[in-house]
TrEMBL record:
One of its GO terms (molecular function) is phosphorelay response regulator activity. The modification 4-aspartylphosphate is found at residue 52. This is DNA-binding response regulator, OmpR family, contains REC and winged-helix (WHTH) domain. InterPro entries: CheY-like_superfamily (IPR011006), OmpR/PhoB-type_DNA-bd (IPR001867), Sig_transdc_resp-reg_C-effctor (IPR016032), Sig_transdc_resp-reg_receiver (IPR001789), WalR-like (IPR039420), WH-like_DNA-bd_sf (IPR036388). GO terms for cellular component: cytosol; protein-DNA complex. It holds the Pfam family Trans_reg_C. GO terms for biological process: regulation of DNA-templated transcription. Its main location: cytoplasm.
Length: 232
């Protein structure tokens, strides 16, 4: 049974979201503060975090950053901020997805299921693949990624995207194709969301994100993965 931590200072939202998730077989933990949320994450086994941006003690952005420094737990942000810049900011901090209030509890449950399904993808392309003489290493068995010998922390979506690209080198994918393959066929958010996830991934694996060697933009079409591959 998966455990979902719900962080929101609106009691009604805690009650409704918790009820819908429990009806779908999830265990839930509810809290209204960022500080308590971090304590739960450090002391309890948590599989998923639903995080409101407006909390009484810390901002959701700060909590998201703190979580990302410690773990790659999937994070779904809840926000009353409908502006595109605000949503992109949340994704750039490492959130896997976002929903704008008011939202459908049924859709929220669907998104939780979709993100968890992506996070639990165990398909292997090889136990380990390295690129450019070991500069970039993807260990699909342990789900670890190394850049220049250093372990790098990827969000579930970033890891899923990198693994998908690595399985299909030198092939160009449109944004719609990447949304379906990485975010899931039932994803109903904006297609441009994939751009932010790729930008985040580039920041972590590229020497110069503005001149990427691995994930390259194919103008007018989408993205493709390059790199000189050496299998171990």
């Amino acid at each position: 049974m998966k455990t979902v931590l719900i962080v929101d200072d609106e009691e009604k939202i805690l009650e409704v979201v918790s009820s819908y998730l429990r009806n779908e077989g999830y265990r839930t933990i509810e809290t209204s503060t960022g500080q308590e949320a971090l304590q739960y994450i450090r002391k309890r086994h948590i599989d998923f975090v639903i995080l409101d941006l407006m909390l009484p003690d810390y901002s959701g952005e700060d909590i998201c950053q703190s979580i990302r420094q410690e773990t790659s737990l999937p994070i779904l942000m809840l926000t009353a901020k409908a502006k595109e810049t605000e949503r992109i900011k949340g994704l750039s901090l490492g959130a896997d997805d976002y929903m704008v209030k008011p939202f459908s509890p049924r859709e929220l449950v669907m998104r939780v299921k979709t993100i968890l399904r992506r996070s639990n993808d165990n398909d292997l392309l090889a136990e380990q693949i390295s690129y450019n003489q070991g500069e970039l290493i993807v260990n699909a068995k342990s789900k670890e990624v190394f850049s220049k010998g250093n372990s790098i922390s990827l969000t579930p979506i970033e890891y899923k995207a990198l693994l998908f690209f690595a399985r299909h080198p030198k092939r160009t994918f449109t944004r719609d194709e990447l949304v379906e393959k990485v975010l899931g066929y039932d994803y109903e958010g904006e297609t441009r969301t994939i751009d932010q996830h790729i930008k985040n991934l580039r920041q972590k694996i590229e020497n110069n994100p503005k001149e990427p060697r691995y994930i390259q933009t194919v103008f007018g079409m989408g993205y493709k993965f390059e790199g000189n591959r050496n299998e171990n």
